[in-house]
Amino acid sequence: MANSNKTRRILLVSTDKAFVQDTRTAFASSDAIELVVVEKNVSELRGEIQDAECGAVIIDMDASRIDEIESLQRVTRRLEGKAPVVVVTQEFNAAAVRILVQLQVADFLVKPVTTADLVRSCIRALQGASREDNRECQIYTFMPAAGGVGTTTLALQTAFQLHTSATRAASTCVVDLNFQQGACAEYLDLEPRFDITEIENNPERLDRQLLDVMLAKHSSGLCVLAAPTHPSEMRSFNTDVVVRVLDLVSAYFDNVIIDMPRTWFPWTQTVLLGSNKLYIVAEMTVPCLRHTQRLIQAVYETAGKEVKPNVIVNRFEQKKFDSGIKAADVEAILGDHFVGGISNNYRLVREAVDRGVPLQEIDPDANVIADLKRIILPEEAAAIARKPKSLFGRGMGLLRKAG
Question: Which of 4, 197, 240, 317 is most exposed by smallest CB count within 10 Å?
């Protein structure tokens, strides 16, 4: 019983007396949640959060002040992920959003905050903190180095591998951020249901209930958030729209796979900073590899050294004697950014796309699947490689030799 009380204690840090009173009122009728209030500025904290042994923290702060941001960084470091943090602020600009995403806060709300939104956010944070394996969402972002390199195929296949993994199987969602020409839903024969116009002017309107309505769901259990495409419209959405989408999706799924457009938008940097893994998809041509080098540099210049671009070369061929780009050339050009190549299996990929099914439904032992698993799930791929062949397989091999 003591442990239950511990995980349901919420600590509020605020000097706003009206907000403190509203928050007390919001949780007063709840027997499951105990609210503890520290009436201090976040920069004045000296260990009160750790002493409270809380299940979640609400920090009321000014996200435009550098000193308060630095104090929030210290708080999140000391918590070490043991309690989710919900930030309430009056400031909501691109710079503040990037920092909050980078700090991986559970949620952030903008004043004036309704009590319903605050309670919902805190309950969601508590539920996320009490997952059995206590894992935070892992975000895998795929970015094309050129058009037609197979980014969507690799992003979707990664999603299926994570979703059905023997070691990391968990809830998985694909987010198609290519609003103009995205094809994630079509590749799986699903209807794109994400209506951005409903939240474009009011991102806070997107909640779990609306998200469920907008998700397309594959028979495997994989979810896809994709908008109907409009090839004739070149639209750019505010950073807060994209951040709200990814913040909500990452709160409810263990794995999030993002299919990025080739064009950079004001929100691209925010997505890169919020990603656990960034994969640039390239192909074995001189122009593409050169552009990949420039793209790697652009990522470093935009997002800093905290984001390392990993390059996957699609339709990879081990050429030894033919003229043209060879495997050694790719490694020399990309250095340690090159994490692996995917075999050229155009017939399999084309059939899967035409039928709207994942690759493994056609051929679970395909080289494309094995190659990608070595990159995304190296431990699992190594275990499969070490696994001895069955007696049946060995017997058939002996029979073939005898014949």
Answer: 197
